[in-house]
Amino acid sequence: MLILLSIVFALTGCLPKTAGQEPPVPVVSIKAYLPENTPDDATIYIIGNYCNWDFGGAKTSEVKTDNGQKYAEFELQVAEFPLQYKYTVGPDWKYVEKDADGNEIDDRKIDSAPEEVVIDTVAKWAAIPIPPSEEPTIVNIKAFLPENTPDDATIYIIGNYCNWDFGGAKTSEVKTDNGQKYAEFELQVAEFPLQYKYTVGPDWKYVEKDADGNEIDDRKIDSAPEEVVIDTVAKWAAIPIPPIIIDGDFSDWESYAYTTIVDDPDDDSKWGQNNDVNWLGIAADEQYLYIGAQYKASENGFIVYISLEGDNTGSTDMEFGAWSRAIKFDRNVQYFVASWEHQDPQLWQVVNESTKSQLQEGIQKKFVSQGVGYEVKIPLSVLGLESGNKIYFVGCIVGGDGSSSPDTVPNNVYPENWAWDVPISITNMAEFVIP
Hints:
By secondary structure, the chain is mainly β.
């Protein structure tokens, strides 16, 4: 019998196992050094394939300290290798470790059972949870703004504190100190790092850029600051255009950023001051074209003609169909807004050289001031316009069918011996580019 056992040992290197006995599961001891901003009362998780990447089965450690260095310790029973794992500072992937620059890192890996304690170092946390029992941290921020920031703008600070949702973002009016524009914010921050950016309106198209107009990384505050955070916004990607208000008050036209206004003398009409165009403005924002007109029309009408650059539809001669007038152009006209005296303005399309069609739903909103003029707004889509398109426009006092125009804005040259039914040729139109 002794001889037989010796033969077995020689063949296998060990004595035969006792029936039903499993080999011991290797124990891996790990010590992980932690970032300085790790809360002293945090719970550190080591999450990996040993627990099927399930936080419910993950091993945890309290934060320990040795000579001022924070660390965590773990003992894992590992049934199979390689062991793959990562650290988090809370039971969620949003608290996972990152590299020193805040970038994602690959899973850590131990290929086989180590003979000694494994030493790791966590460079940074993606975020740090704040226990529900604690009050949120108050972070005060002052942001200096570009000089072209509108005085009446609303500045947004958008970040992870509000889940990057403009609906929950804090805002500030534009303030001024010694000629320098700035915004101020007080944020309640539940976890760090705080990541954020500034916008000059509730949309990413108004986000801050660097001085050359390039994208910038999210701003970041790694832990609760003791003082006011000072930022500087170099440039805005775009500045929102405040809309023209359709209310009959023309004062907002003068301060509007994207407007072409043409003034005309009050007494230069061939039909006298009671049939005279005085002022015409075209403006636009991201959705609408605005037309504002001030004129006098007694038993006569007023028409604003619009020509789209590069559009060969429409007609150069308006003496046909509805609103037939002895007015010719050196370019094709596709649309016009017409009003008899100071009645409701109508939008018409010049389809071709024989057809004009009224666009019943074209004017979305209008305001008529009797004896003064009107304001209207028209969706850009109705006119087939988009950002960058150029249009030409002219305003004309007109009589009835077959009449010419005694006054235009901008001014045009009249033929010799002009009369009410002698055609006028429009060669001078104002220009406007859709912003």
